[in-house]
Write a structure and sequence with these properties.
Keywords: Glycosidase, Hydrolase, Signal. With 555 residues, the chain is mainly beta. It contains three helices and 41 strands.
Amino acid sequence: MVDNSRRNLCKRLIAGAAAAPFAGAVASTVTANTKTDSEKCAASADGKAPVNWARGIEGQRKADLGNGTFINPVVPGDHPDPTILKDGDDYYMTFSSFYSYPGLIIWHSRDLVNWSPVGPSLFKPLGAIWAVDLCKHEDRYYIYIPANPDDKGWSIFVIWADDIRGPWSDPIDMRIQGCIDPGHIVGEDGHRYLFVNGIRKIRLSADGLSAAGELESAYDPWRYPEDWVVENFAPEGPKLLRRGDWFYLVTAVGGTAGPATGHMVIAARSKSIHGPWEHCPHNPLVRTVNEKEPWWSRGHATLVEGPNSGKGGDGDWWMVYHGYENGFRTLGRQTLLEPIEWTDDGWFRAIGGDLSRPLPIPGGKSRGTAGSALSDDFRDDRFGIQWAFHNPSADEMRRVHYEKDGLRIAARGASPADSAPLTCIVGDRAYEVEVAMELDGDAEGGLLLFYNHRAFVGLGFTREFIKTYQYAEEQSWFRQPAQTSSLRIKLLNHNNVVTYHYSRDGGETWHLHGHRMEVSGLHHNVFGGFLSLRVGLYSAGDGDVRFRRFRYRAV
């Protein structure tokens, strides 16, 4: 049956009933004559004024508006390819971590809106990590991981744990080669299967740690009209569930990035895991159809029961997927939440609209807190929770030494271009970061906005010079004398325009750096890699850099 009360509430909110300020709400509306350019892109295609996000710790934006509604994203910043597990009253989710290690951070929620990090599950570098699948089978947790160690070809790996919080096993190569985007399901025959890009499937062993069959074609996906503007067909991200007599297969097509209108969500169903599969008559279930929408390239979805769902799957249901924020591809693909309704014919529809409006919180009330502070005095080890090396070598953690009053990182490489920086994901459109640094030996340290080794900007220093990095190289014409072994750098990223200040006297006197940078082009459609622009700290040259008093503040 269709949940008419939820559908009607969603429709009222989407239609604009929420355009007026909520009584007692944390958030407020923005009037037309006070909107900034960045805020305008949050408006829906109908041009109505958007609602601001609520503000959490350090001013970070959060989805929960404090009045029984939320506004996307539910996990801001670079959290793509979400894979979600409902485990009793708890939800767990992880995301593609690509070249960041420790990686595959597990996040926890009780209401699908307020998420906080638990900790990393993968510590051994496997090269690029793409869309994984988190699942539970007979009281054991599994993460199926497509990885490309040493760029020698993709294979599916698996890690497992008896407790979601770890410890997790070392990765096991399942030798399912040439595949990405695994999706786990138990068939009506009791066997375990992985579906992968293509859309293909392979039977697994009973313990889920190896293949027990051959890779075979599983489903010929629904095709969109040829005149639609997409990146490419690219059937990927298969996620499966069993509800009643039916297996449902949710798939992404249209390409992950490229045109804003490319990525989309489609579905099929079958009474057997072996098919035949019938296309959903509502395909595509989710798609960006207009560049005026606040979220672009929406896709790679998983269905999940809400907190109020009862036995048999009756109650509220939701769809979790990712998308790029209009005007802020630099933030990467962010995690979005949209309600769905089951129709009388056994299919489902997405009913969230373009996601520019508040939606009712699953279950009607908040059940937790969101996010965590990014400011760090380096007194506790926050590797995997906040910090991760980009594309580290196997011995990268040997560079790290926590001391009484800071974090010492041994130098490696000659500059940021060949040194693995320490990076931190951010989810705000505008923010300020500050860090204090001290040099030992002939080291060079600095603060970056880092996409990859071919795309970064930032400020660094040696004992002789303050260095300016743009276009992934030093702008030697802008060198300035340093004459110090300690420096504080402040970086303001205001809607993709970057301003720097620096202080030689511990923050007593600040100097405006005379070169501003525009960084809106540092994203996947220009540089590839599916990454985001992250805050980075680097230690290069010969010696060590001590980092102290890292501060983050959303603007």
